[in-house]
Design goal:
The protein is an alpha+beta fold. The chain is elongated, with a radius of gyration of 30 Å. A five-stranded antiparallel β-sheet has the order 1-2-4-5-3, with helices on both faces. A five-stranded antiparallel β-sheet has the order 6-7-9-10-8, with helices on both faces. The longest helix is centred in the C-terminal third of the chain and has 36 residues. A hairpin with a 5-residue loop joins strand 4 and strand 5. The protein folds into four domains: 118 residues, no CATH class; 115 residues, no CATH class; 160 residues, no CATH class; 40 residues, no CATH class.
Length: 505
């Protein structure tokens, strides 16, 4: 039986049975009455404790029902369900459902269900008020400049932050249900007049065709809809900042958000996007260019520096000047381990330190880093387990990895770094060059929703990789990223600073 009955006792029994009232201690039933033309109409409401605003229930539903006994006229023209909807449960987000399955779904999301005797529909009142943490500063994407806001685990709060940043009637936030046994809510966000329609259809199709029990977070959803989940480079860009989501939406991209997750996913993305940080839009172009150069050096150092070191000292020691080669030989005189074993030992130690720092309490984390990084490293050198040159190389490449703009990409790059180390050990520069070619081939054949992760290097003066990486001043950013294929490729006029025209006159 799925249809709601006109008899209130049947409806109460069905709700108690379907929601396991005898087992769920937080399931609340509340009976009440209201007066309509000298008649007492029996009602009851159902909700889960901790998910709704109980002050609203007391002041706006139960109190109004009590007041109906003193102020209700006897010559009403409205039917009693219409009277109840207009005068007692006057909520801005009121729904009516005819099936128990729809009602139960909404109650599980935090809505209040109200049943009236003699009426074969249920009123659903949206007064959701989850207990949640307040808005905090971004944790992974800290920025000195710009807003200090980040998402939290409440979906409505997150979408409101996006609305606050993008005040445009063409901003669309579509709701999609995900999960079979434990349903969750996902939202697809895009600009109707900018986002590529084919891209929107692909995202909707992939999300709607997921067949699984539960999806708890945006990161989990990303794994279900990515084209190639084994690629070392993510095909969906995660961010915790509303201002960054807003900037991507205005480029013609889409964003996904799920309830219970403080992370948004940006679609599509390319390898260029991983060079940009949250501060790029808030600092002047010359400083921006310097920062981009530093990031490029950091990425190459994080991936290739240990491998180049292994290849050089194992097969191509002659490329070093004589004094450096002699110094290196002297530092390794008492070290019994090969270079590659030294590197792998230190890399494993760094991985352990990263994991330990993330798992231990906040106040102990810096202590673990200092003790592990300085004291144990120095002791390892003095005990002749590793040489000082290896310590410098591994330490520098580890610091370079932390200089990357986005924390998520470091996982894939660490894996690639180990592959390059092993190739360099096997056959020096030749094997390393072969590994780099294979890595570029994998990137060129990896796609983020039919957009290549490795975009075409050059199309014209404004549509090339160099122009995308090294950001121009904001007043010169006339063209949206050419890889996105937005409906409108121009974001501003060629002369955006029109006051210059007046000054010249």
């Amino acid at each position: 039986m799925d249809k709601i009955s006109e008899k209130i006792d049947i409806n109460r029994a069905q709700m108690m049975k379907k929601l396991n009232c005898d087992l769920n201690y937080d399931l609340m039933f509340r009976d009440f009455k209201f007066k309509y033309k000298n008649k007492n109409i029996n009602c009851f409401l159902v909700f889960f404790d901790g998910m709704v605003n109980k002050d609203y229930i007391n002041s706006d539903i139960l109190s109004k029902a009590t007041l109906s006994y003193s102020i209700t006229p006897s010559n009403l023209t409205l039917s009693y369900p219409e009277f109840f909807k207009a005068n007692i449960i006057s909520n801005c987000m009121l729904q009516e459902k005819e099936k128990f399955s729809d009602v139960i779904k909404e109650v599980l999301f935090g809505n209040v269900a109200v049943f009236i005797d003699g009426y074969n529909k249920c009123f659903l009142c949206n007064i959701i008020q989850y207990e949640h943490r307040s808005m905090e500063k971004p944790f992974f994407e800290n920025s000195i400049n710009g807003p200090q806001e980040s998402f939290n685990e409440v979906l409505n709060f997150n979408t409101a932050l996006i609305r606050k940043n993008v005040r445009n009637k063409n901003l669309i936030i579509e709701k999609i249900q995900i999960g079979k046994r434990a349903e969750n809510v996902c939202t697809l966000i895009y600009m109707k007049n900018l986002a590529n329609k084919k891209l929107i259809d692909i995202i909707k199709q992939r999300i709607s065709e997921i067949d699984t029990d539960i999806i708890l977070s945006t990161d989990a959803l990303n794994n279900y809809i990515e084209t190639n989940t084994y690629s070392p480079i993510p095909q969906i860009l995660p961010t915790e900042r509303p201002d960054r989501v807003a900037s991507f939406l205005l480029q013609g991209r889409c964003a996904i958000l799920t309830n219970n997750s403080p992370i948004a996913g940006i679609i599509p993305t390319t390898i260029i996007d991983w060079f940009h940080s949250t501060e790029d839009g808030y600092i002047k172009a010359p400083f921006n260019i310097v920062l981009k150069i530093i990031r490029l050096l950091a990425i190459f150092s994080a991936i290739l520096l240990p491998a180049i070191y292994i290849a050089t000292v194992t097969y191509h020691i002659s490329v070093f000047p004589t004094n450096i080669a002699m110094s290196l030989a002297a530092s390794r005189e008492l070290v019994p381990l090969p270079f590659v074993v030294e590197i792998l030992i230190m890399e494993a130690a760094f991985e352990l330190l990263r994991e330990a720092e993330m798992r231990v309490p906040t106040r102990i984390g810096p202590v673990v880093s200092i003790v592990g990084g300085l004291i144990l490293g120095q002791l390892a050198v003095e005990a002749n387990i590793i040489c000082s040159f290896t310590m410098i190389i591994v330490g520098f490449s580890g610091i370079a990895l932390y200089a990357l703009p986005n924390f998520y990409i470091s996982y894939g790059l660490r894996f690639v770094r180990y592959v390059f180390i092993l190739l360099a050990f096997l056959n020096g520069y030749l094997a390393l060059a072969f590994g780099i070619v294979i890595f570029m081939y994998i990137l060129a054949n990896s796609y983020s929703f039919e957009i290549s992760l490795l975009p075409p290097f050059y199309e014209d003066k404004k549509r090339n990789v160099i122009a995308q990486i090294f950001t121009s001043p904001v007043w010169k950013n006339e063209v949206r990223p050419y890889t996105v294929k937005a409906q409108d490729e121009y974001s501003q006029s060629k002369i955006s600073r029109r006051w210059l025209l007046n000054d010249k006159k």
